[in-house]
Amino acid sequence: MGDAMSTGCSLTVRNGGVVVLSVVEEVDMATAGAVRRALHDLLDERPDTLVLDLRRVAFFGSSGISALVGAAHRADRLGVRLVVATTRRGVLRALEITGAADLVAVVASPEQAVASSVPEPRDGARIRFTQGVG
């Protein structure tokens, strides 16, 4: 996990079995491997919910999508709820275009993932972006 920390990732553990992995700047070929390893390491701990916080990510490329898709399949096998938190249009668009939004729930913030009932993925909607209240 130390490698991921050097690429703009931080980890927050919240009450109730929720872990938040926050990523900043870019998820591209240079950084996606560290993000992938961090996601897999955290999934191995089997939290109830793992939130990938992409609110401060300016670019989420195909390598990031690949890491997310792999993590979504792994989370499904392990019974972990994987949620993406972002309001960035570019990130939302990448999730929608690639179909990654069909594999995970998408919310505006980690707090929303914790506080509210997040729709389960694979419900037929192209993207489940829930606007924050307030």
Automatic annotation (TrEMBL):
Residues 17-117 form the STAS domain. It holds the Pfam family STAS. GO terms for molecular function: anti-sigma factor antagonist activity. Signal peptide: none annotated. Belongs to the anti-sigma-factor antagonist family. This is Anti-sigma factor antagonist. It comes from Umezawaea endophytica.
